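Tutorial, part two.
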Amino acid sequence: MRTFVVSLSLAGFLSAPVLDAQQAARTNTEEQTRIILDVTRVNLLFTVTDKKGRFVTDLTKDDFLVREGKRPQKILEFTAETELPLRLAILVDTSNSIKDRFKFIQEAAIEFIDSVVRPRQDRVAVVSFDTAAELQADLTDDLVRLEKGIRALRPGGGTALYDAIYLACRDRLMQDQPRHKFRRAIVILSDGEDNQSRYTRDQALEMAQKSDAVIYSISTNITRIQTSGDKVLRYLSAETGGATFFPFKVEDLSQSFENIANELRHQYNILYRPEPMKTDGTYQTVEVDVKSRAGFVVRARKGYYAPRM
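Running the prediction step on this input gives:
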C-alpha cells in the first residue's frame, strides 16, 4: 500500500480568531501536523437525480461508469451513503451588501444547523467574512455554541470570500482523516462579489478540491438579474459537485437550506484506484455516468489533484 505524507498548517485558525491570509502564510514555517493519506484510491461522493430533480437512491455499483480522463476505471468500493459524519463550514457574508437581509439569514442558518447536526457525529464551523475572514465557532456539535456564533455576527466592510473558502478548507475541513470516512461540505451565503481576498478564486477552488469539500452556494442577490458574483457561486459549486440556490425572497432561504440538508443524506460513494496512477501533482478530470438509465443527472466533483511524490 503506497502512502503519502501531507503537511497541513493548523495555526491559521488556531492562533487567533481572524483568518488573515498573510498571517496564514507565515505559519507555514511553524510546527506542522503530519497526516498520512492513502493516495492509491480516489473517493467520489455524488448525487443522482431524475429529470424532475428527485433523488434516485436505488442504484447499484453496476449502474455506474467512472472515467478518469477518458479511461474507464475499476470501482473498488461502492456504498449508498446516508450516515457518514458531516464536517461542515458555514461561510456567512457579513459585508455591507447584504445588510438589509442579514437578520433573516442568521435565523435561516440557525434553523439549518438545528436540523442537520447529529450530536457526537457531525461537526460544524461558522466563519464570517467581510474585509477579512473570521472564525466565529470552531468545529463542534454544540448547537448552543453554534447559534451564539451566528447571532454574534454583524454586517459591515468588504468581501473576502476566497480567503474564507481557502482557510476554512485548509485549516478546518482537512483535519479529520481518513477523508473518505467523512462528508465535507461548505455552505456559502453571499452575493459572490469578492473584493478583498488575497487568495484567488482558483486557489480557493483548488483547496476545496484537495480537501474533498463540496460547495453549496446560496446567493443573496435578489434582483433577478444574474451578476458576476452569481457566476462565481455557480462555478465553485459546479466544479465541486455541489449546487447553487437563488432564493429571490428572503422567506425562501429556509427551503434552500432544507434542500442542502436533504442532499447531504442522499449521496453515493465510490472508491477507485486510478489507472494509470499519477504522482505529479497535476489535476485529473473525472466523470461519473449512469449506464443504460436515460434521464438521470449525476452531480459530482469534476476532478482531483494527484499527489506529488
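Helices lie at 11-14, 21-26, 102-116, 143-151, 161-173, 201-210, 228-240, 253-264. In part three we will examine how such features are distributed along the chain.
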